[in-house]
C-alpha cells in the first residue's frame, strides 16, 4: 500500500506527494512529487481499468487530467473530452450508477440532476443505495439559509432529475439544530454506513445548537418515509436525539463509521476539539446495537504485486477504488431484496470511506441468491479472472450478528 499526501498551503495549488509502499512499510529512500499541481484535492480512481489506482483532477492548466503511475512512472493524459468547471471543494466520485458493473465518473449528466437544490450552502455529494433498489442514489446535505440555521438533506435517485428531501426536521423539543456550514478545508459531509445491518445505509453528521452553543455528532437512521415530502423515495432519515454515548462527546467536529475488531459490525469514530486546545481527540465507540442481523462484507482487491512477489505466493494486492457490489435475496415476506454499494468511490476532503463494503441483510435473510461484483475495466476487455475467498471458514458469529466476509 502506498501513501498519497496533498499539500495546499494557499488552498489553491494542491501538490501531490506519493510515498511508495514496500511490503509492511514505506520506502525510505524518497518520494514522488507530481510535476503538476491540482486546483483542488485529486480523486484516486482507476481511470484506465488496469487495477492500478490513478490520480484525477483539474490541473494548473484548468483542464481535467489523469496521472497514471504504472511502474511508478507518472504519465499525464487528458481525462475528459469536454471542459467542465468543477466546484471547489469538489465531491467527485468514481462509481457505477447504471448497474452495468463498470464504474464511471459521477459527472455523467443524463442520470443525475445537473443543478443542486435551491440552497445557500451546498455540502458534499455522497453515493449510496439509500432505498435498497440496487441503484446508487445521490445524497446532498445543504443549508437553506445564509446563516445555516435551516438544514436539509436531499436525495436524487438514479435516472431522476428531482431532488427529494429525506430530512427536513432538525427540531428537538424547543431547540433547532443545524449543520455546521463547513470550511474549505473541511466541507459539510455526510458519512454513511449501515449501522444496524438492515440493508439501508445510515449516516453520521455533526450538528450544532442554533439557539445555544455546542455541537455534537448524531446518528441518522434510514427509516421508512412517514410524510408526503419523501414519498417518492420511500425512505427518510430519522435523527437519534438520545444517543447518550455520542451526546457525551462535547464539541465534536467529525464522525465516521469504522469496523473496529473487523467483525462486520460498524462502529463509530468521533473527533472532538477540547476548549482552548489545538489538538483533536479521537473517540472510538463500539456498536452495541442489538441487531441480530446477517451481513456480508465484501473486499475487492487488485491481486497485483510490484516487488518481492515470489511466483508461488499469490498476492492479495490492495483495496481497489471503484468496484461495485450488489446482492439479491428474498425477505421473510417473499419479496425480492436488493442492495448495492461502491467500494472507495470518493477519496478527497475527508470522505473517510471504508476500504470494503458491509451490506446488511436484516434479520431474516440468512442467504444470498446472487452476489455480483463489478470491477472497472478497459473497454472491450473480457471479464476479469476472479478468485473468491471467503474468510474465515464461511461464517462467523459476533454476538448479535452473523456474517460472511468475501
Ligand atoms: Ca489505472
Ligand atoms: Ca437506490
Ligand atoms: Ca441501516
Ligand atoms: Ca466492529
UniProtKB/TrEMBL annotation:
It comes from the Eukaryota. Keywords: Glycoprotein, Membrane, Transmembrane, Transmembrane helix. Its main location: membrane. Pfam families: C2_ITFG1 (PF23122). It is found in: Membrane. Residues 315-390 form the T-cell immunomodulatory protein TIP C2 domain. It is a single-pass type I membrane protein. GO terms for cellular component: plasma membrane. Belongs to the TIP family. This is T-cell immunomodulatory protein TIP C2 domain-containing protein.
